[in-house]
Amino acid sequence: CPEALRPTALQLQIPHHPWIDLWPISQMRDNLLLANLSPSTSFNEDQLCNDLVEFTDFPNEQTGLIVWSDPWDPRGWEISERFARKWGWTLKGCEEFIEVTNWWRARRGERELAISELED
Using CA atoms, how far apart are residues 118 and 84, in angstroms rounded to an integer? Predict the structure, then answer.
């Protein structure tokens, strides 16, 4: 198992849907698990899934996550600004993910996403 996909302590303790195990960003996985512990912080998994994946032949502003390389390598993932604004709480503590996203954005000449833009 690639290191990025190894279960966190929370994953081993909290029953959850297996799709969460597929994300190579461990803090994001933990954020999702913690949110589902309480009815007041739970989220609509179907809506999250729809916002993560846009079924097109090329990434665009509607795509939530873009995977540019091996799916188990967190350096190959990019978060869209649209997703970050709607689901920013999933990115709390995921500074490396934001850094990687900004690296991909810079390659296209786009402005960086700032952590402050993602805070509630």
Answer: 6
